[in-house]
Specification:
The complex is a heterodimer of chains A (205) and B (230).
Chain A: H1 5-12, H2 17-37, H3 47-55, H4 58-74, H5 84-99, H6 106-132, H7 141-149, H8 154-182, H9 186-189, H10 195-198
Helix pairs in contact in A: 2-3, 2-4, 3-4, 3-5, 3-8, 4-5, 5-6, 6-8, 7-8
Chain B: H1 4-20, H2 29-56, E1 62-66, E2 69-72, H3 73-98, H4 102-111, H5 116-145, H6 154-185, H7 207-228
Antiparallel strand pairs in B: 1-2
Classes of the chains: A mainly alpha (205), B mainly alpha (230).
Amino acid sequence: MSKSIRQRIAEELTGPALPFVAFCIALNLTAGQVTAALKIPLYLDSIGTILVAVLVGPWAAVLCGSTANLLAAAFGNPTMMFFIPVVAVIGAFTGVVAKLGWFRKWYLVCLGGILQGILAAMVSAPISAYLFSGVMMAGTDFLVLYFRSLGNTLMNSVLYQGLASDPADKLVSYLIVFLLVRNLPQRLLARLHGAANLRTPDPTP
Amino acid sequence: MLPWAYQAFLCVLVITARFAIPQLRPQSERSSKAFSRFLLYSVAVATFVILLNSMLIRGGATMGSILGFSLYEEGLFFGVRTASRLLLLTYAVLLFFVSTPLKELIRFLQQKGLSPSFTLILLLTLHFLDHLPARIHQIFLAQQARGAPVDAGIVSRSRALLSILSPLVLSSIVESIDRGTALELRGFLNRPQDARLITQPTAERNALTIILLAGTIILLLATLSRWLLG
């Protein structure tokens, strides 16, 4: 018998996973502080969601991303609330990719990051175009205006902007998570569900 | 879509509501400042959006020029429509959150049936949000003292990013395991239905709030039906 979404989330959110998801939500909201301190031009606003997807599971990652966006709206960035479907897709896709074992090899991580970026651009484009007419109060708005001034439709301009910036951002986020989890002690990882996603399966029966 | 004039009117209404309706006033000094800051920021962004669109989207009559750049009618109207919609959406969401203390909202939702696990996640997130900036700063200073290249070129700084994130994630996993064990020992995940003696008071209704809500619902339905019927 198939399980309900609630049951699947409950299965993933046991023991240390509960506080870890809370930490990752907070990390999504504060990672910008680290990049700002180091003057690195990256958002990394989905790094917590990717970490949860790899170390806990896809359902917990969807919950993590959605809650982070909801709280971002509460803390003064209301536009984030409308992008919950995008972070839900990021969480679900990364969770599936991690379960397939893509986080064991660096080249599969790169491929996953690029695919994730394309998927995120495709999901966010209609929201950005129809709700906000492509204006997100960010530096990428210049790209939308540039594509628009070239004679593209609004929807296409937003999609091109997403395709130009999202794959790079997600690729970097994926690589950072890959390097982070690779350096974590196995003893600690074993306490989280997703540890199996990182271990090479034993060929002996 | 609503015409831009309606959207602009609704924006003014939302801002007026923040000052006129006692229940919609910011609940803390922090949220009051956040609202005022966002108000100023959004006005600047709206002006910027209108000007850029007027310059870049060429169509219709020329409405004037700024610094040698011509402003076009089609771009101007598109910019005004975009800016007013953006402001309306963001003000409405922001007004809800600045007038509702998060901890009270979480407690209220739990009373209405929100899962205790999710409530715990939300409360723990607020705890982490209070402590994480200090922890990040502490790790940053420690790595700087150890000679991490936090002021070098972009590649070295990117490497320094990992040296900050690694201890942060590691310490969080250790803390999560400790907290998770404590929760399991207390039987958090197997506990029966909560029984509370304290009930959360619901907000008082007033005539203006009801009129505003009813007006918004009517406008929404009218827009939706117009959109569906073509």
